[in-house]
């Protein structure tokens, strides 16, 4: 079949048909011909000393997708966990989907950034490498990850553009023996994606964004769908302390199905044909988060109604001082290109 026709059909097929009974190992196609497991374990703010056990527990209990990043400063421990599960034969490398991300101070050093993450994780290749934010920061500033200017603001590298960074990421894929199976972006708005696509040779496989009923980002999700870019949702519970577990509407939908609030918050993304990342270092919660259900149209319209009534809440927005193009966060320097 003509590839653009099959892309069109996929993009317009309701996810209830694509995933009638979603499970944590349901996979969703990427524009690379590969696919991504619907549920991934998040590792941001998973403390060293806790994250190794969390990753081992998750893989033992069936997770196959782990979301990592150099700036989480725990990739060495995630690597220890991967080494152990692979050595014990619990999984084979090719059964895992491992993502890492290029940090902002590495935009001009893409190969070095990748090499560092691969070394820390003890891997030969990544399944997905993302540009963490479209925001280059000074690689020679007063801190290797979070450089600041004397006034306390983040030390941006205004001589570099996220578009050039993308070109450098593209070279990773076209190198003779690529160490990344796919490249993508994170925290991209429609504005930044539009600029990127004007110059891209490779369409990003994934855009990883904050996404949940308090921040549906429907315009980004629709744009990505139209362009064949898979969306991965982060902070599905509202990040640290899982504030959205208390939401009345979420609990109403959960009660209807006889499940916990977390199941509804995770399943919401499956119904949108997105994958989702849930972070926990608590074994019982890692287990609990495996449960996914098929939500119906009525559930989805209730969940969609939350932000219409309460307005939008974005839980993760670092103080870059940059206008990333999100309508709910105007102001700051425009780096879209
Ligand atoms: N690309 C990007 O810029 C970003 C990517 N991400 C990725 O997405 C992942 C998920 O997002 P994150 O912001 O961490 O937040 P989440 O929305 O996944 O929430 C994590 C919080 O929820 C708690 N929790 C998890 N499961 C349960 C449960 N079943 N019951 C009660 N509480 C629970 C965790 O506690 P505990 O661990 O103590 O159990 C933790 O406090 C990140 O870890 C990271 O991998 C996140 C933010 C930005
Ligand atoms: O992935 C998680 C988030 O993007 C996180 O990496 C940033 O919020 C970072 O802590 C920052 O302050 O810039």
From TrEMBL:
The active site is at 72 (proton donor). Keywords: Oxidoreductase. Substrate binds at residue 132. This is NADP-dependent oxidoreductase domain-containing protein. Residues 39-307 form the NADP-dependent oxidoreductase domain. PANTHER family: ALDO/KETO REDUCTASE. SUPFAM superfamilies: NAD(P)-linked oxidoreductase (SSF51430). Transmembrane segments: none annotated. One of its GO terms (molecular function) is oxidoreductase activity. It comes from the Eukaryota. The record marks 101 as: Lowers pKa of active site Tyr. The keyword ATP-binding does not apply. InterPro entries: AKR, Aldo/ket_reductase_CS, NAD(P)_OxRdtase_dom_sf, NADP_OxRdtase_dom. It comes from Clohesyomyces aquaticus. The keyword Transmembrane does not apply. Belongs to the aldo/keto reductase family.
């Amino acid at each position: 079949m003509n590839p653009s026709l099959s892309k069109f059909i996929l993009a317009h097929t309701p996810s209830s048909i694509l995933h009638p009974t979603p499970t944590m190992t349901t996979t969703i196609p990427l524009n690379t011909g590969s696919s991504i497991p619907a549920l991934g374990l998040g590792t941001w703010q998973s403390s060293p000393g806790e994250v190794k056990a969390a990753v081992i527990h998750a893989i033992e209990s069936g997770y196959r997708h782990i979301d990592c990043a150099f700036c989480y400063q725990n990739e060495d421990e995630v690597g220890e966990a991967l080494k152990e599960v692979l050595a014990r034969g619990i999984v084979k490398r090719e059964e895992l989907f491992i993502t890492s991300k290029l940090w902002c101070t590495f935009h001009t050093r893409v190969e070095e950034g990748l090499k560092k993450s691969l070394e820390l994780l003890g891997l030969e290749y990544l399944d997905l490498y993302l540009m963490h934010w479209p925001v280059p920061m000074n690689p020679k500033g007063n801190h290797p990850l979070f450089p600041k200017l004397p006034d306390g603001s983040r030390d941006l590298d205004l001589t570099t553009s996220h578009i050039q960074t993308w070109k450098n990421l593209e070279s990773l894929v076209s190198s003779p023996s690529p160490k990344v199976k796919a490249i993508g972006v994170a925290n991209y708005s429609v504005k930044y994606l539009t600029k990127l696509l004007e110059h891209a040779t490779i369409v990003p496989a994934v855009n990883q964004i904050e996404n949940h009923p308090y921040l549906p980002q429907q315009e980004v999700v629709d744009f990505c769908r139209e362009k064949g870019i898979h969306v991965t949702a982060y902070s599905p519970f509202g990040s640290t302390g899982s504030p959205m577990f208390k939401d009345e509407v979420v609990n109403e939908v959960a009660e209807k199905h006889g499940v916990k609030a977390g199941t509804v918050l995770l399943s919401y993304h499956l119904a949108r044909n997105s994958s989702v990342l849930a972070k926990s270092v608590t074994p019982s919660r890692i287990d609990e988060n495996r449960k996914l259900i098929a939500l119906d149209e009525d559930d989805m319209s209730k969940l969609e109604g939350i932000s219409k009534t309460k307005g939008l809440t974005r839980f993760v927005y670092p103080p870059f001082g940059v206008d990333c193009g999100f309508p709910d966060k105007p102001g700051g320097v425009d780096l879209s290109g």
